[in-house]
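#structure-requests
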Amino acid sequence: MATNIFSIGQSALQAAMAAQATTSHNISNATTPGYNRQVVVQSTAGGINYGYGFVGQGTQVAEIKRVYNDFLVKQQLASQTTASSLDSYYSQISQINNLLADSDAGLSPALQDFFKSVQNFASNPNTDASRQSVLSMASTLVARFQSLNDQLAQSRTSVNNQITSTVDTLNSYASQLAELNKAIVKAQGAGGGQAPNDLLDQRDQVIANINKYAKVSTVPQDNGAVSVFIGSGQPLVIGDVPSTLVATPSKDDLTRLQIGYTLSGGGTATIPDSFFYDGGSLGGLLKYRTETLDPAQNSLGRVATALGNAINDQQKLGLDQNGVQGTNMFNVAPPRVTGATANSATAAVTATITNASALTTSDYTLAYDGTKYTITRLSDNNKTVVDPTATPAGTFPVTVDGVTYSAPTMAAGDSFKIQPTVDGAAQLTMAMSNTQLIAGAAPIVTGGNAASTVGLTTTGNTGSGVVSNSSLDTSTFVQGSKLSFATSAGPNLTATWTGVTPAPSIVVTNSAGTSTTYAAGAPIPYVAGSTYSSGGVSFTLSGTPATGDNFNFAPVAGNKGTASISAGSVDSSYFATPLTTPLKMTYSTTAPVGFNLSSAVPAGGAVITHKDGTTTNVAAGATSLTYVPGDSYTMGGMTFAVTGQPSNGDQFTVSANTNATSDNRNALLLAGVQTKNTIGNTTLQGSYSQLVATIGNKTNEINVTNTAEKARLEAITGELSSESGVNQDEELANMIKNQQQYQAAAKIIQAASDMLNVLFQVIN
């Protein structure tokens, strides 16, 4: 029995030693990342039946168990990968949010300064200073577009660099994980199935580290190994075999890195970016690039493209300072078209922006399956199919969202990526450096037959005075005013104005060319053959007027009706056959009622647009046009409207502008681009403001979500630490307890020894 007591004490001593060693191990690893607290699990060694009952045989250490909560660990991994993704996303988007919203370095002030210079030019179209200001502000605006795009491009380069770095890190962790799996399987087999706790902790820590870069899912194996998958199921480690990830250029955009993996037979397979969106810093990077960076760069490029096209189009509808049709002010980037690396040698397609207002911020793909062509808008997967075999057959060219695609040369399986606006900001440059080339004038002028002559009344005159060479300068004559010359003894003349204040002075030029100026109402000595000019009226008076004779001048009204003609506008087709002789439209109340034309309707015919929106087509060669008040006319690239009711014989004219130097009508239209809806239903400033607001809202959303997720992660980590972490106070208490247990076990052995000594003495 004493020997039995001795073995019982020995088992207690060994258990106490194991507990003390475990406690010491816990204390020494209290700050080791990923370490889980370990505890000794004891069990009874059983008992021996002596007839009167079972006598215990002491204790045994069943296992050294790590305190591990699988549920909390999985929650922590899920929260950690989400927080890492949001951290990565926020660090990137906050930079471009600060960039685009900057009140000094953003695009808004440069846009405003440019259009302010155009408005100043419209007010002073004939000054070199105002023209130079337009070009200077345009150059500044171009530089601002390029600067913003450069910083977005730097962000794209940063994403590529981080992808490369992350791939290297994941490959390193994959190798570590494979080696740990191998070591765990070996240790578990050698240990009779006992868990190698420290190796398990190391493996869990590696998995946790991988989880920060990409969302991790694990599948335990029967032999103790763990297979690890990242993203939406991409294998990273299967047992002790790691995969090799690579950062590889996209097949349709060599500047864009994607994640791929090395195939066993050689070559590389690409993994879609969306596989990694669920979490990790890699997922945050890829989501940022797809959801924010790509649309932001495209949106900025769209504003630049729309601006360039709108200004260029309006420029080409006006006349420059030399009276010549305007030319482009900006060079605008074409769509970027990139063929897939696997395309056939002859694959080709041309994409051209034909309606900048309809552009979106999306990229597109054009693919051919051997039968039909499919144009896919990548932002929402909307598809446009061109099927030459269909009924009716689909044909090129085809226009999708403002981009026209020419007939491509493609083999089955070929595809192209089309980015209509990605280069818009980067490649916007100045096409003009000569201030004289700014087109401030409109190419046509319109007018009604207003007063162009003066009528003379001489009723009751008795002298022989004769008026000749009378004329009227409509630019200085005040409509509705009248001039009377009355004779008195001498004879002298007295000029009297009505309808204009102050009354203009009178310039008298004699036959020798000498001019004398008299105030209105002052006596004017009469010399036969002199020329009298005042307020736009000019005439020559000869003969001998009698005292009391009067010569009354009044404007002869041109149009007598209430109708008027608009200023008119042109489209690009006007310049193919610009006006060389004025078009005169004379209203007739006899058949055919309407306007008789001085020249026939040109090739292409005319269109009459009525107030209710309906139209009437007029064939080329017609010499008259019907008229209903409010009708507008389009022909020869010109559009003008007549309102009101003309009288019989009233006349309107449309003629080429011969005074381009001081005309500002096209300059006003250039300035109007600022408030015109040039991008869908939005102005240039409105579109950029939408971009700034979208980025700002997304930045705030990511920040708020990230703050909440970090709080959740902190709570889970705290709960897990309280259960699995090492508490120094608790371990100190355990150490004292283990020491006492050890001392007690030693006393058992001592007691057994004493009993044996007594027995030996009795025997002797």
